[in-house]
Amino acid sequence: MEEWVGLKWHDYVTRQAMGEFPEYAVHLKDEARTLGVMFRAMGGDPALSLVTAEPRHFQIRRRFLQKLAGTHRKFELAWRDEESLRLPDRLALFPSRKVNRELYLWLAALASLGEIHHHSWLHGNQAMVQELLSRWPGLEPMYQRLVKHTLQWRPEPDSLRGNEAKREAAIRQALIHPGSVDDLPEALTDPWPVVLWLYPVLGRGKLKGQIIGDDNTMSKSGGLAKKRKRRRAERVDAFDKDQGLMLFRLESLFSWSEFIPIDRAGDDSEEEDADAVADDMDMISVSQDRREASSAIKFDLDLPSEENDDLHLGPGIHLPEWDWRRQDYREKFCCLQPLLSKDAVPSPLPEHLNRSAQTLRRQFSALKPLRQWERRQLEGEELDLDACLERVVQHKRGIGEVDQKLFRQCKQNQRDLACLVLTDISLSTDTYINNRQRVIDIARDGLQLLSEALTASRDPFALFAFSSRRRDHIRFHHIKSFDEPYNDTTRGRIQALEPGYYTRMGAAIRQSIKLLQTRPEHQKILLLLTDGKPNDLDLYEGRYGVEDTRMAVQEAHKAGLTPFCVTIDEEANEYLPYVFGSSNFVVIKDPTQLPGQLPKLYMNLTR
After folding, report:
1. Which residue ranges form the domains of the chain, and what is each CATH number?
2. First-to-last CA distance in the chain?
3. For residue range 21-39, what is the model confidence (pLDDT) as tens digits?
4. Which of 56, 224, 548, 592 could form a cystine bridge with 322, CB 3.0-4.6 A?
């Protein structure tokens, strides 16, 4: 263990001018896992991003830094806002690796209590230190150690003059005895940074620091931004079902539409030009090379005309949406429109699925209800001969109470469960995964095979698909209800599914919850098939969309349902543990395996 070496303040200044103490440096990327565990364990917001802090400029008189060129210094200091926790990329302030690491731990613990504002920097930090030490007395030795080293790092008040000296003395007093200082004397220069405290937000807007665990570098080619391969986000150990510090920024998980260089409205209820922004994206031309030929693919995002659209099943259903910024629901904020395809033609099972379907029917038929005789019933279809014989023996011996249950009855043993399958058919499902298959083709095959299996097991099931174009038009496609039989009509509706618009997932889940709650079965499963994260044209992107979907999943749990997500999104491990919980989703790495894996996942889920 490294020991304190007793350096003077001027020695510190000299070492900092040469790069501080690089031999004792501790890096944020190496401590991220531990910091995440500590942050959430102390009650910090589990959805915050962990980002490297941007340097802050401090104006300090030249005469105090005689060995430095210039009067301005840059320091990376800790701060947080409602979306991110900012910590220095590395800490090498002290000649001890242990102390530098403890500074990271202290700042993460302090940040778990909240955000600091400009008007409360002095009082707020002192109050937070007091509260943290009262909650967690075990941190007291570490804090005292950090204060001792920090005071030696700071300039001596005797080396300063006038109000600068008084201010430094007051800061030292506040560090040693938190809560004892009310005001700082005004001076012409900035105070030497207090590395044990949090600082106010450094501007609002786009992140400029590095997001730990997520390479968000972008490149541009032909005027269209394209995403480079990114590192997978690092998640903390023992990721709890509903908690965890996300070591990446949700807004950095770009959807297809986010690559388009068009200004987007932040909130269609607050921005007057939200509709205009969305209309700008209605017609988009994307150049794409395919088989060594350059061709232009044009996506028309206008809604179909009334005569060409699917059949509307009613006037629309108004649903709430969770606004994480307000920490409240927006009642009747979304309009969901149930639709029925009018172009679907009753069709048999596609020929290439026949062999797989036959195997699944044989396997799932073992799960179907069996007729079994239940003995010793008060009434039934016929006499239970064994019970009658025992009654005669009891009567002749005159012992015990005469049994009146002399019948047997044949009953059907039902699997007491129902399943609703909700499929994402957003625009991204039009993507080709090989030379002949798109994501939508794989999804259709998966629905076909799963339906064949569930029909063989006689489990009640329903099929729906969804896409969206802003909050006032969420398309909810009716494929099969619980009461409808699975036949060629249903198969035709599945084969008629085509890529739609965007992915307002929360509203679709809430409507599915309503439908499942009407079922009498004890176990109710909501199975979601998707290929990407929640996303829409308006404010429904980034953290907003993820938080609303997470709240909808929690509503499903509270309603007694079992929500489970199956996805082919390679980046799903970065956000689905936060949305569904660590054990309530699965990622299919090879999309072509989805049709065959889906029935197996269902069987494992219902055992």
Report:
1. 1-176 (no CATH), 311-364+415-606 (3.40.50.410), 374-412 (no CATH)
2. 53
3. 888 889 998 888 888 888 8
4. 548
